[in-house]
Amino acid sequence: MSKKLYIGRKIREIREAREATQTAFAKLIGISTSYLNQIENNQRPVSASVLLALAENLQVDIASLSVSDGDRLLSALSEALADPLFDTYRPNLQEVKLVAQNAPGIARALISCHQAFRRNSEQLTSLDASISMNLGFAEPTPYEEVRDFFHFVDNYIHEIDTAAERMAGELGIGNGEPGTILAAYLEERHGVRITRDGTAGPFIRLFDPKSKLLFLNPHLPSATRNFQMAFQIGQLELEGTVDTLVRNADFHSEEANEVCRVGLFNYFAGALTLPYRTFLRAAKELRHDLELLAGRFGAGLEQVAHRLSTLQRPRHKGVPIFFARIDRAGNITKRHSAAKLQFARFGAACPLWNVHQAFEKPGRIIRQLAETPDGERYLCIARELNKGEQGFQAPRRHYAIALGCEISFAGDFVYGDGLDLSDRAAFDPIGISCRICERTNCPQRAIPPLSSRLKVDRNSRTAVPYSIR
Length: 469
What we know:
Blueprint: H1 8-17, H2 22-29, H3 33-40, H4 48-58, H5 68-81, H6 93-102, H7 104-126, H8 129-132, H9 142-152, H10 158-171, H11 178-190, E1 193-195, E2 205-208, E3 213-216, H12 222-237, H13 239-249, H14 254-273, H15 276-285, H16 290-297, H17 301-308, E4 312-313, E5 316-317, E6 321-326, E7 332-337, E8 366-371, E9 377-388, E10 396-406, E11 428-429, E12 454-455, E13 467-468
Parallel strand pairs: 1-3, 8-11
Antiparallel strand pairs: 2-3, 4-5, 6-7, 6-10, 8-9, 9-10, 12-13
């Protein structure tokens, strides 16, 4: 049975944007006023006929009415409410859905309060009492604020993406060697010359505004150098756009503003070197083969995987995928999901996820069919990568990237070939993280779930030394 679509808030926003009353709007899409009122209050789902009427009469992009943003908010809110802090009241799933759908601002405020509570708790646990007495209300870290900013805008920044695509078209990026094109543009348009004389120390990129010299580390891959040239172009040409986006985000600190500025210029660099529609067509043509896409655009595998996660432009969306970067300790250092799968905001990734196996098989694509506790099934792809300078003694960073899609889209990926997608037994049971996972019989469980009580039997022992009530 198909999932019912409760999108009352979005329908109300569409109506209010047209400054229409419920009576006038209901007449426009051919339903009764009472039915529209019930839809807007999430008392009834939106029918297929209403969706068609919105598309035909108002040119509304039906794909833009997806509940992916609501799924992300619902996941984050559910994780927060699983904390023992809320043991005196445990809302059911329907109540949580109603808050996330009808009052997203309140939901985000509650999530922020819970984050602050956890940070204060951790600080009070680890710091000396004399120091902890002086602790104030913990603000989210700049990194966390910016990470959530990108997460809740669907990892797609329209103003920057379209500006980068226009420039890519003018420069012919995608039709030639990008490094030569970008270097020539920097010199001709901005008088910036590229130097690789090796005197700038350990920097990847170092720009001197006075001399207009841009140092690029000669010991790094060409894909990294191309990305850094695109970043510099963004700084020189999009400063006003970026400042407006940062100002409207209303971060808590100047540090967060600066972190976001760097993130937005990085976004521009990815969008310039991998222009939206050209890259989207190539992704479909090559069936999301990471190595072939990297070769075609002169980009790195992580750049390609990250770019795939940003293909969320209205009317021109790509396959909804999830993407994450994980270090050897299991920490998720970069994450986004346009699919139903959401990542934990605290704690490490599920140990049953194939991304951990990637470190055991460097240089190889690892495939996995996986099923989460909610019954959703996914095609998961992981690969170990390393970054750093060339040279025997050069330090290198090792990490893994993971991406994938809901199983209904597996046919669009070359990595789904040869797998039996109809065999339920072929799917590994994975979770989000141990602290919120609902599975009661997982032999890899690291810690008990926060929302459950434990039963310990001294006369018996299984893989996990307790059972979950």
